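name: query_chain
kind: protein
chains: 1
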Amino acid sequence: MKRRLPSAHGHAGPPDQRLVQAAFDSAGAGIYLTDHAGHITAANRQAGALLGRPVAEMLGADAHDLLHRGIGDGLTPHSTCRLMAVLEHGRPARGEESAFLRGDGSLLPVSLSAAPIVDGGQVLGLIVVFTDITERLNLSRQQADQLALLEDFNARLTLVTEITSVLTQTLDVDEALRRLGRLIVPRLADWAVVDLRIDHDEVERVVVIPPADEAQGSPLPEPPSSLLARVLDRGETVLLSPDDMAREPDSETAVAQRELFAARGTVSAVITPLRTQRQVLGALTVARTDPDRPFDATDVTLVTDIGRRAGLAVGNARLFGQQRQVAEMMQRHLLAPLPQVDHLQMAARYLPASVGSQVGGDWYDAFLLPDGVTALVIGDVIGHDITAAAEMAQLRSMVRTLAWDRCVSPSLVVDRVDQAMSAVTDVPMATMIFARVEGSEGGPWRLRWSNAGHPPPLLVTPDGHARYLERRQDLLLGLRLGIEPARRDVVEPMPAGSTLVLYTDGLVESPGSDLATGLARLQEQAAAMVHRPLEELCDEIVRRILPGTTDDVALLALRLPACGPGA
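structure:
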């Protein structure tokens, strides 16, 4: 006779109630059941422990009123409660954006799963299984906080990198500080000012971002001396907290301080020195107007670092300006004044480079030879620094001496300069044009010249026709190829009233622009301005120099009388 085993589906009879209750109480999650009206009919021990409530007190209570809450909210309305919707529609629900009210009044964040209890197609009640997700939420918050800190650190690092780049892109102090202000506002602060020390006792406000006419309220007053004294004299960074801003002023200085920041509704500010290793050059003030976002210690560290970088940039720019002024003065003193020749007009210009090394080896010269002929020279020693400027002075003196010693053709003068250059100067290589303007006062005139690797002269006739004199260009000075260069003169008739323009390559070429474009541009400009006075023509030409040139520029222009022989 075979024994029938109990069926897993309950066909062998009703389940053991003690076994069901033990399983119910031993579950690793909180469980409670309700009837169709939502009243709690059963709950396990884990539910009571999680909710901080005796199970017996929970029985018969309205589950919604007793427990159901939204995270951070009060009692959830019946109409929006997802658990009540299970009873109404008979569809299961899950979620992690819920909370249950504990016996001590605190909220327990839970992950829950709810299912209807159905018999014969009718919803008899609800079973809810829930777990405590406090640790998971705390971990998520920690991860979110860490991510926010990482993003903030990355934003600060990006800001510092951009500021460093901006401060090194220009040696103009005011422009560098304006760019700095535009980076700080609004990414770090709502407004910013920079004050520079002119001398020990005088301070000048050089930058206000945004400008007064773009901001709310009145223009910023001058900075109160007591605050700047701490920053400028002691080199300290000052943090003004919202409490400092709200404190009633107790002195005239404090009143001035309050007016300074009240002008734009400031609630928090940092003032930091702009300093080099040796001195404090000024102060950077950054301010915020949002009371919910005051500056903190991390901001103070960042602003202090920005001030240090800005101070070094200002110091470097000032030192560079001083060096440029000295070098430019030296360069101009090395360039001799133009001679006074009754029937010839002459004008010259020298400009240091707009960027880079500033001064270099470009030069011009004009002088009368013993035979009464006017000599013109334009040249460029290889190099773009003060050394090149000194070598230029050596070469210029040599050209004058050798040209005066013998009244010979330009090609012979250039040849003698080339031979002597390596023996008695430190000049490695150079380009040069040496020219003679031949003809009596009434004309006719002709230009006789020798070109040692230099850009060609530009001749502009009175009718506005401009052309380059390119017929011959010999090797530049100092280029040794094992053979003696055969230099020759070139002669060109010069009509009455014509203009001759000699120039160095910095006038016609710069990074990002080819030489042909620069030559065409100069040719067009000179032709269009040939009827202007010679000084004005030179000013206009140098004013329109290609931007960003890294070379200095020398320009020498000559204009013949408008009358010819017998006029």
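note: The chain has 15 helices and 21 strands.
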